[in-house]
């Protein structure tokens, strides 16, 4: 596994893997499930709305021999570099200023980029979803919800398939849990098609712009607080129970801002 490649697409790949592989009974799938999206999905647009900016990934689902025998879907990562694009600033910046036209402009720019890779006749069946993380979790709820509603309206007018629940803010434990799923997907933990043996899972410490997540697998005998428990179930029913905790305010951007403001004479500027 290329650690640089894993880090670059972690925020979005993790969401896609869970969306397309979670079985109907999987815990914690409701916030990200593509309810009613249908089984035949060739591409998915995932908007990763982080603290420093919003990145779109146009993911291609690689054909599998028999999708009914796969624990997780196959994703064609070879096209990731050219099918990823980021705009700044993050949604929280627009939310704080209540700049909804700015939100719409950024989303439209990202969709225009995606149009280069999704044929026009397939856009109506291509799901588009946006997941916001710590940045929007840190602003007043009414401002965050106004931003999300403008995004729903903007995406609905693009011709892609979108449902209101596909645009939301993920919980801290979900962010950590999905980071674990992405890292272990790339590591090959979930086994091959046909019910292959599972590999040993790896724990994850993932630092974003506004928070840091710590996630690792725990046995059933370990008691966890509800807010720290995340369960992932593959399409074939293999179940993983995780400790997942998000430390809001301990992200890279927050750390840099705090450091800059503490320096004598810095006046809060980034050195």
Automatic annotation (TrEMBL):
Residues of the signal peptide: 1-27
List of catalytic residues: 175 (proton acceptor)
Domain of life: Eukaryota
Binding residue positions for ATP: 209-213
Name of the protein in its database record: Uncharacterized protein
GO CC field: membrane
Record keyword DNA damage present: no
GO molecular function: ATP binding; GDP phosphatase activity; ribonucleoside triphosphate phosphatase activity; UDP phosphatase activity
PROSITE patterns recorded: GDA1_CD39_NTPASE
InterPro entries with a match to the protein in the record: GDA1_CD39_NTPase (IPR000407)
Family: Belongs to the GDA1/CD39 NTPase family.
Record-level GO BP terms: nucleoside diphosphate catabolic process
Keywords: ATP-binding, Hydrolase, Nucleotide-binding, Signal
Lineage: Eukaryota, Sar, Alveolata, Dinophyceae, Peridiniales
Taxonomic source organism: Zooxanthella nutricula
């Amino acid at each position: 596994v290329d650690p640089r490649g894993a880090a670059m697409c972690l925020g979005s790949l993790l969401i896609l893997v869970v969306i397309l592989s979670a079985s109907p009974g999987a815990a914690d799938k409701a916030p990200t499930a593509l309810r009613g999206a249908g089984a035949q999905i060739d591409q998915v647009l995932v908007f990763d709305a982080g603290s420093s900016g919003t990145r779109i990934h146009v993911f291609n689902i690689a054909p599998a021999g028999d999708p009914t025998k796969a624990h997780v879907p196959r994703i064609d990562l070879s096209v990731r570099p050219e099918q990823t694009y980021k705009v700044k600033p993050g949604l929280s910046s627009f939310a704080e200023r209540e700049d909804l036209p700015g939100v719409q402009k950024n989303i439209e720019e990202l969709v225009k980029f995606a149009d280069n890779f999704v044929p026009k006749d397939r856009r109506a069946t291509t799901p588009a979803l946006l997941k916001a993380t710590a940045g929007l979790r840190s602003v007043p709820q009414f401002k965050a919800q106004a931003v999300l509603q403008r995004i729903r309206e903007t995406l609905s007018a693009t011709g892609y398939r979108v449902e209101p629940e596909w645009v939301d803010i993920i919980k801290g434990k979900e962010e950590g849990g999905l980071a674990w799923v992405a890292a272990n997907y790339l590591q090959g933990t979930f086994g091959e098609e046909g019910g292959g043996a599972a590999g040993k899972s790896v724990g994850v410490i993932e630092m974003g712009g506004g928070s840091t997540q710590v996630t690792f697998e725990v046995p059933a005998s370990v008691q966890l607080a509800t807010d720290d428990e995340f369960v992932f179930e593959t399409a074939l029913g293999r179940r993983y129970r995780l400790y997942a905790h998000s430390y809001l305010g301990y992200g890279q951007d927050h750390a840099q801002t705090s450091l800059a403001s503490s320096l004598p004479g810095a006046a809060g500027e980034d050195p």
